[in-house]
C-alpha cells in the first residue's frame, strides 16, 4: 500500500513511522505541529529516517513542511509548549543527545520541501494514496479539499460509547487532555477540533481511537524483553528514546506500554486484520468542557476500529526490534 504520513513526531510517532517504513510504501512524510513545533518535528523525522536508513541501507522518502498551527477559532491547547513534556521530553524524542554517535551511524542531511500540495495532488492522481494522520488533523482537513485519498487516523475517543459495547476501567478512559480543560477529547482532535471534521472523509476513513489505544498495547514484560534483546539499529534507537515515556506511563498508572499511533499504521499494512463499526462522527465545538469531544451517531462511512488481531500486531512491532 502507498502511504503518506502526516506526523507531529513525538515518541509514539517514532515507532509508527518505523513500522510504516518497514511494512508499507511510504511516498512522503509531512511534518506538522502538535507534540512539538513544526521545526522540531522536521529534526525528529530526520532522526527517525536516519535510523531506518542505517538499518536497511536505503534512501529516505521525501519529507515536507506540513501544518504550522491550528486553524480552529478556539484554541485551548497551545501550539507550542515551552516547558518540558514529561511524555515526550523537550525535543519530542525523549531527550537523548548523541544517540546516533553511540549507535555508530550519522544523521542524514534531509531538506524538507515546500512543494507539498503539488506533490500530494500529483501522487493522488497517479495512484491510490492512503494518508495516515498521526498528529493534529489540520493538514488532512486542508488536503481533502483538493485531492481524493483514503484516510487513516489516530484520533478521538469513543471508548465509553454504549454502542461500542465496552467500558475501560481507567481514569483517562474518556480522553487525555484534562490538563488543558478538555476532559472528553484526545490530543490530535484537541489540537484542532474544527479540522477533525475531516474524520467523515468523502471516501470513508478508518479511526484508531484513544479507547483502542489504552486497550491495545505491549505488556511491560514484552516491552522489557524487546528492549533487552534488540538486535536492530531501529530497535536500539527506539529503546533509548522511549525510556522516559515508559517511566511516565508507569507514573500515571498505565499497565501497558501504549503504542498509540502504531495502531493507525497497522491498519494500513496489507492483510492487516481488524474489525469495527461504521458511524457518522460529530465533533463538539462548544466553548465548554465538551470542546473537542467526538461522538458517533447514525450509520456512516467512517470505521471506528474496535478490534485488532493482537498477535499479528505484535509480530509486526517485534520486527522493529528484531
Automatic annotation (TrEMBL):
A Pfam family that the UniProt record links to this protein: IU_nuc_hydro
Domain Inosine/uridine-preferring nucleoside hydrolase: 4-312
Highest taxon, organism lineage: Eukaryota
Listed GO MF terms: hydrolase activity, hydrolyzing N-glycosyl compounds
InterPro entries the record matches: Inosine/uridine_hydrolase_dom, IUN_hydrolase, Ribo_hydro-like
Similarity comment: family membership: Belongs to the IUNH family.
Protein name (record): Inosine-uridine nucleoside N-ribohydrolase
Organism of provenance: Hexamita inflata
